[in-house]
Design goal:
A hairpin with a 2-residue loop joins strand 3 and strand 4. The protein has 7 helices and 7 strands, in the order E-E-H-H-E-E-H-E-E-E-H-H-H-H. Among the domains are: 59 residues, no CATH class; 56 residues, no CATH class. The chain is elongated. With 191 residues, it is an alpha+beta fold.
Length: 191
């Protein structure tokens, strides 16, 4: 199974191997990424874009918005929904893409990595691939929410300011998480 299997096909008339997912197709499209496309390193040898990957790559809403994809369809996410979907993901297979800027096609990291477990899975965050262990995520969210209740700013969740160190245990936990890509997702999504 590939990520693009979760997206509706847009049949074309080009036969070949998909540069995005590697599948052979008789209903693909010619390769026509824009001059602004920066994710070439995530593509593979091929001579077309298959009908499934074409939908994913050509429809700009999949780049501009965060979403969760399942066999039942695509649901676009608001920022306020991100933590709840990560803490309680849908039944597999699924894929989750979170974007801050809407300018990158980081979901390409997930092409061969649709999630098959609700407890341990990959997500794409902006242009990074992030490993999610739900137990670790729950722990991080609890720390972030406790800090926010104590009026920690988002910047304090990355590097606690001097005034935050009144809450030493909390600051020490934050320092443990620094540099962890999953923590960056939590900091972005926590209200």
């Amino acid at each position: 199974m590939k990520l693009s299997d979760l997206f509706p096909p847009s049949p074309g008339n080009v036969e070949g191997k998909c540069i995005v997912c590697g599948r052979m197709t008789k209903s693909g499209h010619r390769i026509d990424f824009s001059d602004n496309f920066t994710m070439w390193a995530l593509l593979q040898e091929g001579d077309c874009i298959c009908e499934h990957c074409y939908t994913l790559c050509r429809d700009q809403k999949y780049r501009r918005k965060s979403w969760v994809a399942t066999k039942d369809g695509i649901k676009f996410l608001e920022k306020k929904d991100i933590l709840s979907i990560l803490l309680s993901p849908p039944n597999p297979p699924f894929a989750i893409y979170i974007t801050k800027s809407g300018k990158k096609q980081g979901f390409l990291h997930l092409i061969k990595r649709p999630s098959l477990s609700r407890d341990r899975f990959f997500i794409a965050f902006e242009d990074s691939l992030v490993w999610v262990d739900r137990n670790k995520l729950e722990e991080m969210v609890a720390v972030a929410e406790a800090a926010r209740k104590l009026k920690f700013r988002k910047s304090d969740l990355r590097d606690p300011s001097t005034k935050c160190w009144v809450h030493r245990d909390l600051c020490e936990r934050i320092m443990e998480y620094r540099g962890n890509p999953l923590w960056e997702v939590v900091v972005y999504a926590v209200p």
